[in-house]
């Protein structure tokens, strides 16, 4: 097995490498912690978005999450098959589908959010609370105010 020291000091300090390794670790933790909820981390992201907003179109959800429309349709198909969301034609524009989280979706979201919190806590356990908060704040600042900030 390769150790971090085998990579050399230059690669180990590259931001791309550091962020990717952290994301891979978090994805693995999410897979473990979310197993009982019946959804994955991408599906959790969709449910979190839908729960925080008035019902909107699947296109709006795709734009907000930064995924292409085809991927969003596939995600919603899976969530709809699990009875976690419903799509219905918009009363104002029948060509547009409005997506809503169901009561089952809200219950699953609550369970999955707790599991996701546990995964994040486990990843950040090597940091103190102040450093974990600082890391979130710094990443948020990069994502909101960076050169491609949205």
Automatic annotation (TrEMBL):
<dbReference type="InterPro" id="IPR036388">
    <property type="entry name" value="WH-like_DNA-bd_sf"/>
</dbReference>
<dbReference type="InterPro" id="IPR000835">
    <property type="entry name" value="HTH_MarR-typ"/>
</dbReference>
<feature type="domain" description="HTH marR-type">
    <location>
        <begin position="12"/>
        <end position="144"/>
    </location>
</feature>
<dbReference type="Pfam" id="PF12802">
    <property type="entry name" value="MarR_2"/>
</dbReference>
<dbReference type="InterPro" id="IPR039422">
    <property type="entry name" value="MarR/SlyA-like"/>
</dbReference>
<protein>
    <submittedName>
        <fullName>MarR family transcriptional regulator</fullName>
    </submittedName>
</protein>
<dbReference type="InterPro" id="IPR036390">
    <property type="entry name" value="WH_DNA-bd_sf"/>
</dbReference>
């Amino acid at each position: 097995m390769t150790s971090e020291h085998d990579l050399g000091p230059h690669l180990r300090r590259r931001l791309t490498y550091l962020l990717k390794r952290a994301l891979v670790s978090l994805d693995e933790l999410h897979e473990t912690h979310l197993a009982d909820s019946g959804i994955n981390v991408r599906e959790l992201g969709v449910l979190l978005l839908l729960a925080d907003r008035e019902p909107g179109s699947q296109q709006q959800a795709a734009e907000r999450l930064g995924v292409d429309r085809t991927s969003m349709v596939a995600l919603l198909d899976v969530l709809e098959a699990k009875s976690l969301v419903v799509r219905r034609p918009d009363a104002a524009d029948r060509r547009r589908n409005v997506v809503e989280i169901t009561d089952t979706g809200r219950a699953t979201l609550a369970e999955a959010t707790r599991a996701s919190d546990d995964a994040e806590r486990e990843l950040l356990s090597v940091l103190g609370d102040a450093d974990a908060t600082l890391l979130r704040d710094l990443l948020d600042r990069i994502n909101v105010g960076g050169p491609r900030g949205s």
